[in-house]
């Protein structure tokens, strides 16, 4: 690996960690109904765990209501079962064509638990970002040992990797802070 490959690989992997955090935060409940709450939920569809968003239209016509319209009506029971067995604490109601979910308001304790969960997700991704930094630094040291760069180049690569680390950790922190405020409102 040369310098550009090391930096590009590190940046791509850090970006994936931030994207992973974003998708986890979308799935956290706030006081309002949001399709993101259930869209990545896996439903057993003919023996295959399938994301709900691939099986149905999900909408939030009101602040406290989610409506799920499956493309295949035979999947209705499995969708209900997946929602009931999730850790979201939601009770789906079906009329044979659509599933309706009333999203109750959160209590103060529930909000604090969700904020703690968001911070836990963020810490996992910050650790992942730091692991990418460690790997990139190892690749850079290997490059220097193999004669592919000088000590000054090694220091410059490590500085650039550190800048990327700071950038993506800050992005993770910002997303978590916004989600925490959204949960507490």
Short description:
With 185 residues, the chain is α+β, with helices and mostly antiparallel strands. The protein contains four helices and six strands, in the order αββββαββαα. It folds into two domains: 3-26 and 107-184, Topoisomerase I, Chain A, domain 4 (Orthogonal Bundle), CATH 1.10.132; 35-102, 2-Layer Sandwich (Gyrase A, domain 2), CATH 3.30.1360.
Walk me through this protein's architecture.
The protein has 185 residues and is α+β, with helices and mostly antiparallel strands. Helices cover 57% and strands 15% of the residues. The protein has four helices and six strands; from the N terminus they run αββββαββαα. It has helices at residues 3-26, 76-85, 108-145, 151-184; strands at residues 42-45, 48-51, 56-62, 65-70, 92-94, 99-102. It has a four-stranded antiparallel β-sheet, with helices on one face. Strands 1-2 form a two-stranded antiparallel sheet. Helix 1 (3-26) runs antiparallel to helix 3 and helix 3 runs antiparallel to helix 4 (151-184). The mean pLDDT is 89.
């Amino acid at each position: 690996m040369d310098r550009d490959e090391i930096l590009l690989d590190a940046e791509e992997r850090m970006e994936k960690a931030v994207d992973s955090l974003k998708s986890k935060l979308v799935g956290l409940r706030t006081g309002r109904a949001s399709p993101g709450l259930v869209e990545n939920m896996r439903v057993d569809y003919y023996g295959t765990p399938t994301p709900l968003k691939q099986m149905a239209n999900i909408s939030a016509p009101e602040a406290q209501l989610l409506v799920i319209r499956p493309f295949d009506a035979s999947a209705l029971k499995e969708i209900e079962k997946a929602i009931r067995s999730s850790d979201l604490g939601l009770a789906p109601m079906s009329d044979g064509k659509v599933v309706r979910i009333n999203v109750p308001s959160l209590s103060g304790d529930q909000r604090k638990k969700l904020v703690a969960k968001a911070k836990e997700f963020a810490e996992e991704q910050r650790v992942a970002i730091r692991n990418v930094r460690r790997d990139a630094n190892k690749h850079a040291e290997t490059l220097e040992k193999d004669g592919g760069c000088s000590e000054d180049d090694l220091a410059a690569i490590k500085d650039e990797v550190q800048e990327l680390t700071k950038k993506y950790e800050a992005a993770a922190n910002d997303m978590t802070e916004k989600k925490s405020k959204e949960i507490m409102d």
